[in-house]
């Protein structure tokens, strides 16, 4: 059994993962098309010895995301971006998202094998089936497939892709063979016209909370990218479930579970809280007349709007008609729902403001806590952020994290230069890469043909 190690990746959304990250004074609002910036951010992550840079994809655009998830409105195609990152770096892994629901296995195998050669063994495939129905209308379909069909399709795709890699020629052009696959959805003869990837099989990531996604991740993925969970107990439950499923497939120590994490970090706690407040103050709020679960948020579906009317629904008390900067009376917050109480605790964790305390919770805090979060958020100085990472790692809630920078490049620099050294000093994270490939970083063996 391999020694358990902490793994860290960088989720790269050029305008930041905070909905107002692009409005931060130090952000680059058009960074999605600034390849020099993308390459420099990737080099920054590499200097900190992170495992990988992660490139998402969505296959659709939607102006409705402008206030909830602006980074997903417009960005470069991930394979082209990954090639540029690979050319500017030497060790860090490059994860690209490819959706088999709208692709064929021969094309995916060919693109990923090519990227693995270009990067000298640093490529990974984030296998998603797509949670966003908008993509269907861009690919000649009337509707997005249901979960069962998408996962049936994805599982056959993955099997064919791996067979194509195994049957691909060596770099000298010898050793290739046909696969003559005849399956439920695909007929593929092969062989691939690209040599077998340097990693044998390109590293596979998957994500999702459905039973089908958990099973695919446990059986076939090398890394499971875990979404947000409402409580620490739920996070541990998810982690244990993936581990138990992987064990049933004989892969207990071959799957890493990495949740998303948004660190709002600064040299002092007070500065970190002020930065968190600044980002929230830059958010564009929804008109009070607009309520309900109708805000599109891209790949994470829909969520509540940012206004006091929606906050009243979520917290279970009427807080409409107040100035957002005003403190909420403790008597009002005494009547919140069970879900409202959970969210009040989250507000205190992030802002250090309390119900009726010297720094009281404000109406604005309620509004900012109303929409669903993209990932777990931690606000604090470097030691406090490292404490949270260490706790999750040691308590069996995560094998590491995919870091969501709230804005770019400042939040990347803050994490890599303030938090990573603390983790290294504690012996939790590597100070040097042990090899050149992503499989080396993740401790994964080279699969035989």
TrEMBL record:
The keyword Isomerase does not apply. SUPFAM superfamilies: Bacterial luciferase-like. Residues 20-397 form the Luciferase-like domain. InterPro entries: Diverse_substr_monoxygenases (IPR051260), Luciferase-like_dom (IPR011251), Luciferase-like_sf (IPR036661), NTA_MOA (IPR016215). Keywords: Flavoprotein, FMN, Monooxygenase, Oxidoreductase. Belongs to the NtaA/SnaA/DszA monooxygenase family. This is LLM class flavin-dependent oxidoreductase. The lineage of its organism: Bacteria, Bacillati, Actinomycetota, Actinomycetes, Kitasatosporales.
